[in-house]
C-alpha cells in the first residue's frame, strides 16, 4: 500500500533521477583523460550497477569515445602534421587503455585473456588499429613528398613497435599501404614530367647553340656512375625539362623506395619514356631533327643510371620493356650517341674491381 503513496512515488522518481545523473557523471569521467587510480575508484562504483561483462564493454566504449574526441579536434589542413600527430596520439592512448583494462579486470585467473573476456579487448584493439590504417590509407595519397612518406612510415612503425609491447604489433599490415602510396607518387611525378616536356616541346625552336662549354667528347667521357644531368642537355630545353622532371620524381622516390616495387616502378618509368619518344618521332617526321639535336639516347642513358642507382637492377628491367622497343629504338638508331649503360655488366665490373 505504501508504494502507492504519492510521496513515496515522488521520492522514488527523485532517487532514480539522481542515480541516473550520478551514473552519467561517472561515465563522462571515464570518457576523459583519466589515470588508473581514478579508473579504479569509478569502476568500483559501477560494479554495483553493471555485470562484469557489461562493465568491461562500457569501459572500452568510454575509452573509445575519449580517443575519438581528441582525434576529431585535430587540425586536418596540414596533412603531414595531421597524420604524424594522429598516429602518435593513438599509440599513447591505446597503450594506456589496454594497460588500464588489464589492471581493472585482472581478477580473473584464466591463462588466456581471450578466453575470459571472449576476445573483447583484442577485438576492440584491432578495431582501433584498423580504423587508424583506414585513415592512413585515405590521407596518404595527399602526401606529395617522398621524405614525408618516409617519415610517416617511420612514425607508423614506431607506433606498431610500441603497441607490440601489449601484444598489438601491426607492422605486417603497413607495407601494402605505403607501397601503393609510393607507386602513386612516382606515377604522378612521371606524368608531370611528361606534360612539362610536351608543353616545352610544342613551343620550342631547336636552334643550334655554340659548343663553347660543351665539349663534343663530354658525353663519352662521363662515368656511368655519375648521375649528374649531362651538361649538353642545356642545348635542348625539352629534353632538359623532361630529365629534370624525372630526376625530381626519383629524388622523391629515394627516401622511401621499396625493392618489392622495382618491377612496377620500371613499368611506370617505361610508360613515361614512351610518349616522350613518340613525340620526338613525330617532331622528327615533321621537322627532321639534325644529328646533334636529339641526344635522346644520352638522356635515356642518364635516366637509366639514375634508376640503377636508386634500385639495383632497376635499369636492366627498363631496358627489357617491350613498350620501349618501338619509339625509343628508332630514336636511338638515328642518334649518334653512346650506348646505354648496362647495369648488369657494370655490377660485374665493380665486383671484379673489389676482388
TrEMBL record:
SUPFAM superfamilies: Cullin repeat-like
Pfam families reported for this sequence: Dor1 (PF04124)
Membrane topology: Peripheral membrane protein
Record keywords: Golgi apparatus, Membrane, Protein transport, Transport
InterPro entries: COG8, Cullin_repeat-like_dom_sf
Domain of life: Eukaryota
Family: Belongs to the COG8 family.
Primary location group: Golgi
Name of this chain's protein: Conserved oligomeric Golgi complex subunit 8
GO CC terms in record: Golgi membrane; Golgi transport complex
Subcellular locations according to the entry: Golgi apparatus membrane
An annotated GO BP: protein transport
